[in-house]
Write a structure and sequence with these properties.
The chain is built from 12 helices and 25 strands. With 436 residues, the protein is an alpha/beta fold.
Length: 436
């Protein structure tokens, strides 16, 4: 049985996150390609229709949601619509859309309440000040857009709206864009944003945001930036309020996150598990990523079915940013590897030397491989460039098998493909790339 208060199923990823945002980014991709098609012999004069962009996004998300409904019916999963709250003793109180309450009992409960956009203190949302949720419903292209936050959500929307025609400024409190990525990848990404005319203010803090008439004024480090629209993309908070967590004293909550045992995904109560954006791990970060939540859900389902599933490997959670250029990574960054005491070897290869990248006209970026000097084990793979979010799956498989750079370079990859850059970067670890 699944309890969900939204009329549609699918949660954040399907309805307001991964799926609709990537649909919008696909529209931006095609619009940009059409504008520049003359260079490869395809002349066009594209026209942007934001109403149609929104409709396309809704159609894709709607089909995904209906697909989940079909799977519910196929697998005899009951769905109860309403706001669920733990009531203690294996009971859940559900308030339906009509306000009526019912009690549902279960042998085991899985908390998967997800997350919502986080706001900076004092920020008031409105027609010109938005989070990603509101911007997804937008049907206009602002002349000027300020994006607060240079994580995946912020740079994806910055990338899309720059290609739609907005003048975009990204403000990030930390020293670089995509601050959790490898430093070389961030540096290359920042160059790509500059080439596209996207302004970046790093190491900067927004002190005040106010709407004056039709203008948003943001005070950053003493200077006032003006825009027609302001996006707050400073991360996501767990949706843990009003869930009845206080009814189960054994559940430990820190900063709104439900703490779990990483080996079992159990909370302090042996009959309650928790997964996804809602949870935190003791002593280490828990990425808020849909694919991680999916794997955690599979693990809990297998455990409850009496199987003995492998524990979730939190060291090999891939990251993926669908901006232009794309960024993807798995494993340790160079700095993280050195901080852990490894003596590392580095191999890099630029897409500028890759034949398929030239064909695509997408030669920005590089592949970086971080390997252990002693045993040659590959510790991390980091990519900025074309189709990075697809290419990283190759690296995920290899790191899962504890590959060495020698084994990685001996994988026979077809030609011409972007994946050949992985071979060359592995060769670079050993000091002998072939094509540079």
């Amino acid at each position: 049985m699944v309890i969900e208060k939204d009329p549609r199923v699918g949660g954040t990823c399907t309805l307001r996150g991964c799926i609709p945002t990537k649909a919008v980014l696909h529209s931006a991709d095609l619009f940009d390609e059409a504008k520049h098609g003359a260079s490869i012999g395809v002349k066009a004069t594209p026209e942007l229709d934001m109403d149609a962009v929104r409709k396309f996004k809704e159609d894709v998300a709607g089909k995904s949601s209906k697909g989940i409904e079909f799977l519910f019916r196929k697998n005899k999963v009951d769905r109860v619509q309403g706001h669920g709250r733990l009531a203690g003793g294996g009971k859940i109180s559900v308030t339906g859309p009509d306000g009526k309450q019912q009690i549902v009992e279960a042998k085991h409960i899985v908390l998967a309440c997800g997350s919502a956009p986080r706001l900076i203190p004092g920020l008031t949302l409105g027609p010109r000040v938005m989070t990603s949720d509101e911007l997804l419903e937008n049907v206009s292209v602002p002349k000027r857009l300020i994006v607060l936050g240079a994580g995946a959500v912020g740079v994806e929307f910055a990338s899309a709206y720059r290609r739609f025609g907005s003048e975009v400024t990204v403000v990030e409190m930390l020293p670089r864009l995509l601050p959790i990525e490898d430093e070389d990848i961030s540096a290359e990404f920042e160059k790509a944003f500059r080439r596209r005319g996207i302004k970046s203010l790093t190491g900067a803090k927004v002190e005040k945001v106010e709407v004056v008439g039709e203008v948003v004024k943001a005070t950053v480090g003493g200077q006032v930036l003006e825009a027609d629209m302001f996006l707050c993309a400073v991360g996501r908070r767990p949706v843990s309020e009003d869930c009845g967590l206080d009814k189960v004293p054994a559940i430990k909550v820190e900063r709104g996150f439900v703490m779990i045992d990483p080996k079992t995904l159990l909370t302090g109560d042996p009959n309650i598990s928790a997964i996804g954006d809602l949870v935190a791990l003791p002593g280490r970060p828990h990425p808020q990523l849909a694919h991680l939540a999916f794997v955690e859900g599979e693990f809990v389902a297998d455990r409850l079915a009496g199987k003995k599933p492998h524990a979730v490997n939190y060291d090999l959670v891939p990251g993926a940013t669908y901006s232009e250029p794309e960024v993807a990574s798995v494993g340790l960054t160079e700095k993280a590897a050195r901080d852990k005491g490894y003596k590392v070897k580095i191999g890099t290869f630029p897409f500028a030397a890759n034949g398929k990248a030239r064909i695509l006209g997408a030669t920005e970026g590089l592949v970086k491989v971080v390997a252990d000097e002693k045993y040659d084990e590959v510790l991390g793979v980091h990519i900025v460039g074309p189709r990075a979010t697809e290419l990283i799956s190759d690296a995920c498989s290899l790191l899962r098998l504890e590959t060495t750079s020698e084994e990685m370079l001996h994988v026979m990859r077809p030609h011409p493909t972007l994946s050949e850059a992985l071979t060359e970067a592995a060769l670079g670890v050993r000091g002998k790339p072939l094509h540079i």
